[in-house]
Amino acid sequence: MDSRDSSSAVASDAARDASLLSEDAAVLSVTSTLAKSALSCFQSGKFEDCIDILIQLDQKQHNDPKVLHNMAIAEYFKGGCSKSKKLLEELNCVKKQSEELASAAREQVEAVNPGTNVSVSKDQFDSTVTTLNIAVTWFHMHQYTKSSSILEPLFQNIGRLDETIALQISFLLLDIALACHDAVKFLAVFDYMDKAFGVGFGSHEENGSTMQLSSNQGSKTSSLLSSSVVADTVAESSLCEETLDYDNVLAEIAAEKRMKSVGHIPANNLLKTLSERSFSTADLKLELQLYKVRFLLLTRNLKLAKREVKHAMNIAQKRDSSMALLLKSQLEYAHGNHQKAMKLLVVSGIHKESGTSGIFNNNLGCIYYQLGKYEASSQLFSKALRSCSSLRNEKPVKTFSLSQNKSLLITYNMGLLYLARGEPLLAAQCFQKASVVFCRQPLIWLRLAECCMMALQNGLLDRSEIRVNVVGKGKYRKLMIEENGHLELDGSTQCGKLSLPLARACLSNGIYLLNESLLNESKSDRESTLSVGMNETKEASSADHGEANTNSDLKEAKGGLNQDIMQSSLSAFKDIQSREKLLIKQALLANMAYVELELENPIKALAAANSLLQLPDCSKIYVFLGHLYAAEALCLLNRPVEAGAHLSAYLVGPDDFKLPYEQEDFDQWRMNTSSDCEETLDSSTGNARDSVFLKPEEARGALFADLAALLATQGHHDQAKAMITHALTLLPNNVQATVTAVYIDMMLGRSQDALTRLKQCTRVSFVPGRLEVRAS
After folding, report:
1. φ, ψ for residue 337 (rounded to 5)?
2. Which candidate, 297, 357, 374, 362, places its Cα nearest to that of 332?
3. CA-CA distance, 95 to 89, in Å (whole number)?
4. Range with top average pLDDT, 5-9, 44-48, 339-343
5. What's the predicted TM-score (pTM) here?
């Protein structure tokens, strides 16, 4: 071929290549235009139009994971965000497909270049956004453990991720940690954010500087979503824009700010558009400051929380300060300054927003509960539930409404209120509904058991085989059937179904979960649950700790909050948690002994009572109950000498008892049990109920009554008479003591005295040998 032929061929090839490039550019231009149109429709709430455009994109780029990802999200919103499980299935399929394509691409490169290091574009088949959306969906469903398990691998390699995505992962992990009351995990994530973004535990200097994303990260990211993964994002805002390189682009959200709230809801979620890959650190600093306050409230470090919330107010002076005011209200609530907490709650203005009016009413209901105004508290909780219901029905639907829905938490609070008012059937219904969220918490099983026991004490349960009563009048008459300890209202869709066997099952669940929690706690003490794959972060942390040991007081005075102080808060919180778990375990075992005695299982009752007495640092009140229940069980097992040994532990002479515990012990017990471990407020919601534990003098009277019963069963009626006289002096209205006195009078031939005492009781049942003193 001559040179002219060669030149002609080259020219022909060049022309063909130019034509192909032109066609590719045209196709890419069309897909880019379609992607932008889909994004615009999505943001406008036109989900059907968005899906139609995405179908066109899929025809041009068949089975592209990013298109399928966006289609799944658009379909989810089109269906009113009601099919979360379906969304999870589709996102998991997209993630699997991305991973398979990435693996195939690596194999293809390796085949062409064997023996070389294989690298595939990290953006081409990156499944990070899809994985993040899966975690977000689980978060919206209140499945925090699942969400966390998905995020942890991302967090361990967070140094390789785009900084915007890293922020979203970090904020979501912070919210999960707060939701789970996991201060250890919170501190690990916050420590990373402090070092990675330069705003966190350090000084309180304010500035308006901007944070620059590194030059090789986020070049095609169009917006920053601070804590967005727990608001109307990522599922709403990660609709991928089909750019020339098909990079994931996080879309902006129409709303310029997010709702403010407390509890398991994310803090002040602000959305700012990126301009030249930079954004002001002021908003991020406010976000982290608010999270810092929430951490201090979680760990009960109220002194530092007071100082830090003031700093948050200073940062928020020219911004929305509603979240800071809300946290300040929460701080006053934790201090017991309920009137001040109420004023700050009103000033926060969250009742004006439909998305947070439910939180306002719930928190106000908690305050009124603490003030003893149960009726007002009940009305506010009901109003809060109505607000949550209306939030779910808002159009257009937002995934934020799902995580914002606190109806189950408020329902739990309502259950506590009913329990305090002595309405166990209604309380049980509330706890059963709330168990969807709290089923892994020992406390809710304790509460359900208490409902059963209160129903028994209120005469709502009957031990007879079958009993039928007529309730209501006229057309509202219905049968109330009591069978095998169960109570049901015939024809009622909201029937109570409480029983002593149910109480036993609930207590068993609570004990199992508590033991599991204690085991996991000991494991987590040995090694952190999260680790960041960045050596420099660990080195910096070690250096910081070394410098801070001797200067923490000085730094605190200057307004900084260093790692040592945060670690100190964490250590103190672990001690508080340990004490709380010990109290819960004491209550579970004491109630188990009580229930087993009621079910006439003295062997199991004795085992529970002995386990209670063997607990280290057991409260004097629960030690007292342990001895009483053990004595009763032994009496039923015909072991009176051993039963007497338990009662004689409090003898100070042949015929006198010392106080089993002092008033100070009683007051301390009430203070320790005045808070619940799960509530919408991050601090304590309030008393589960004022328990019917005996006051010290009444407990002493119970000892006299029980020893009298024991002596009577052994035939020592004269000694028993003296003991029961002491008991009735201290417990003049106690039915069990009166019945014991009746029995002793009859054994001594004093029939008239026995008859006189019987007239004092309208509902009594007595089994010889049973010690009938109870405390729940």
Report:
1. -90, 75
2. 297
3. 10
4. 339-343
5. 0.74
